[in-house]
Amino acid sequence: MADGGPILRNNRALSWKRAAAIAWRDLKSAPGKFGFVVLSVAVGVAALVGVRGFSESFRKTLSTEARSLIAGDLSARIFHAPTAEDDKKVGTVKRNLPGSRSTWVTETLSMASVPPDPVPVLVALKGVDPAEYPYYGKANLEPDMSLQQALEGDSAVVAEEFLIRLNAQVGQTLRLGGRSFRIAAVLRQEPDRISAGAGMGPRVMISSAALARTGILGPGSRASHRLLLKLPEKLPPAVNSVTVRKQLEETLGDAQVIDYREGNPALTEGLDRATAILSLICLVAMVLGAIGVAMAMHAHLEQRMDMLAILKAVGAGSPDLLRIFLLQTLGLGFAGGVLGVAAGLGVMEALPVVFGKLIPVHITLEFPWRSLLAGMGTGLLTTLLFCLPPLLDVRGIRPVLVLRRLVEQPANGIGGWFARVWKRRLQLGLSVAVVLALGGIAWGLSDSAVIGTSFALGLAGVLLVLLVLAAVMLRAIRFLLNRVRLHLPSFLRQGLANLYRPGNQSAPVLAALGTGVMLILAVYLMQSSLLRELRETASPTLPNVFLIDVQTDEVAGVKAFFQHQAGVTQALDLMPAVTGRFVSLNGKAVAQLKDKHYPRYLLETAELSWSDAPPAGDKITQGKWWTDGGAHEIAMGEGAARRLELGVGSEVEIETATSGVHKLKVAALYKADGEHVGARIPFVLPSGQLKNDVATWYGGVHLDPKQIPAMERAFFLAYPTVTVINIADILTRIETVVDQITVVIRFLAGFSILAGLTILASSIASTRFRRMREAVVLKTLGATRMRIVRTFSVEFSVLGLLAGVVGVVFANLLTQLILHRLKIGYHLEWPAAVVSLIGTAVLATATGWIASYRILGLRPLEVLREE
Amino acid sequence: MIDVRDAQKWIQNGARRVDILKGISLTIPAGQFVAIVGASGSGKSTLLGLLAGLDSPSAGEIWLDGIPIHNLAEAQLSSVRGQKIGFVFQSYQLIPTLTALENVLLPFELNADGNGVQKARRLLEEVGLGERTDHYPVQLSGGEQQRVALARAFVVDPPIVMADEPTGNLDSTNGRLVLDLLLGRNKREGTTLVLVTHDAEVASRADRKIVLKDGRVVEDTLPYETGSPMAEQVSNG
User: Fold this and answer.
1) B236 vs chain A: nearest CA distance in angstroms?
2) Which of A459, A500, A854, B82 has its CA 20 to 30 A from that of B26?
3) Burial class (CB in 10 A: 0-12, 13-18, 19+), A310
4) Has this prediction a pTM greater than 0.80?
């Protein structure tokens, strides 16, 4: 070596800085192709950041506005009207907390109408003391006024939905429980709406005093009462919300007590579950994107084979090349991640609109740092994992390629196959690691090892099967093509033959696009099957109208009303309900059993009924119903008995307000069909045990649907305090909720389609030069632009159609599997299948042309000279 | 010094074995300019590939400056290639996405520390391309591309330069220019030069000529050795 020459390195590793410089130079050479790689990553990251960012903001809202969300520091819910005794107990608790305040909030369902239109609607009625309620947060009214002003006298505030449904306005009068109320304002936002759960009707709020005057709250009526407690600024020593909560739980034995810090456990649990499911749907898009990046990198390396051989010839080792392409991949992943994060913020903004009324609180969207980092990290990790197997191929590139093309080929046959597999053992091992890592990511996103494992194995399995199916279909088409090719028009023949162009990645493209179609179609099929099932259960032999809170003195009148009502196809079935409480189970006092995990509400507020024969819709599964109305026996719903660990022959003691303690033996267990009145009462006694107790009655009747509005008008006039639930309305509400849920899922599953299309575009872009050559050769031979358009369109649309077939087949299989587990019937939906096939073909053709832009305008010499 | 001991090369295509080199033994001392000649398919380029460590022999040994490159691991082999050998190919093998300067710089970046830009510029000036450093290969003529390839081969000052038909794609003027540059390096720096060629005139300028036929050495002579066809050709000329 000459003196003064360069200092050659002993540790031959290429520095990261230099590797980055070389990677960057290579990136600059084909920005268009890498654009699709960036997009592939961005799609998944955007979806994930959107969902998790929204969830993060939701959680933050729940924690920062925790007190507003229950309108107090603590809340205690009971399901009977608070008695003087209850108030005394609350007073005792408050005495130890000088400066504390409390109020009762009542929530129930009722009927309301706006004259002159006599048709009532089911409303979620709430009675509050506006001088106290809410302790935290604010009821936003329009026109702007205080709640105290708005609820003065017989005034009400109503949700906008109420006004829309009844075509009413502020200032008009509404009829409720036989009394008239002036609509004082629209309730724009109710601080503790979230604590009321999903309402069956629009909110109507009046003062507690006015609610008492309506007579809606008869003895035993279905209302929930929530005690809101506001703690003083300064608590006495050794007192905090935990101790107060304990005190309340001890004092009001049957109450469900929560303090603001735990917010709404059901809601947070639901939010976590929804976030997990939606995150996994986003992960599908992310995995598809990562597969797209891996495919693009594989194609890129294949095209760069000569360059890699030159690099090796001038001294680059495989680790150097790996370093260069690893950096390149990470750079692309990072760029995709940044773009995805930006788009994800847009998705997060869009989600409240997509969720619509499913979200009961106003969420303040904030910059979701954690979700942003999680999305970015997941995107980078997934991209890296999926790209490692193709990147490792650089190790196999022989520098001698710069001198001659002829290199060793492994032998054919089984030996050759094993030799090829053995040669790629590292890649295969890495693929297993990828599935494991995917399981880890899914575990992290869903917070469940089982879900994470099932998701990773399921997705890997589905992708593998889709890939095999796609490959088989492509082979079948090739087989057919080889038999009929000369009988086909030349553009069709060439278009189909293009599917097998060297470097085309038709099978993975089909699998990826097919996965997106499968997801969206499966969600649609499940939604329609579920709704069909719901509609079909509304059969003429089952009640389609339910009556709630009929008082005993109204029973005869109500029976008579329906005897004279036109269109009744199934007679009115009325069932009494009495509230009692368990005193002992199998000789053990309930107080002693409190440490065991019995459902407290079942023990403290037992819903009882009486009947000397099994009620309609109930099927005896064990034991025998009594024949003597005075027997000391009880029948129980299977579920309730299981939770209380009771069976036929068990002995229980139940106390009711009027007739005291009943010593009873379990005579029978039954299973309710869920479609009759009896389904909602878990304990039935002989008539002689309860008939002196104060009962509220529930009724079910089947009417010709056309007669229901007229019946509702007449019934509301006669019995304004009885709530009428029309199943058709409920079904409409359920359909709306199901629609909204599926819109959200489809919106996110749409990202998978987008990822699939990006893969298609990327794959097309990677064979762009070959297409350019084909186009100019065709032009040189005299082909018109239209002829070229037809040829390429055949290729793109057949790819789309095949992906559609793959997606439709698997969507139906998946739906059938899930519906079978849910015991819901499955029907093949031809229109949906056809729309999916055509839609995918159209989308694929459009994407193909977007990725092949400018090909048509090329001049032959321009391309041929470049060779 | 390069020492080849009974080197054989065959490739297996499915069940068929194709023999390319059938037992070659030779020694090339440091600083010698060796021309390898022979008809197409005689195994010239394959032998060059083996000497350069671009490929491994199917049997036999190849020692390069005392290093047994026939059984080196891939990582060590690339180190040998990068630090000991400069390469010039018939079809230039420049990387199309890199400029002339970046192409020259590449082996330096892969194998050496420090900043090689000045050196790469100087080498490009030496081969007469000082004004074209920022041009891409597609913007250069064949002769210019080959001169860039020469500069690239010299950038880490390798003790051995191997050239596969370096003038094969060039007109006579450019061919002569490229050969002068290679020979200049050989004489000035004492670099070993192994060159595969069809061109008798190029071969005549070598210190030694090795003729291959059907994968075997059929002649290994110094050009002026008495009785050799080359000596006769020169004395007749």
Assistant:
1) 35
2) B82
3) buried
4) no
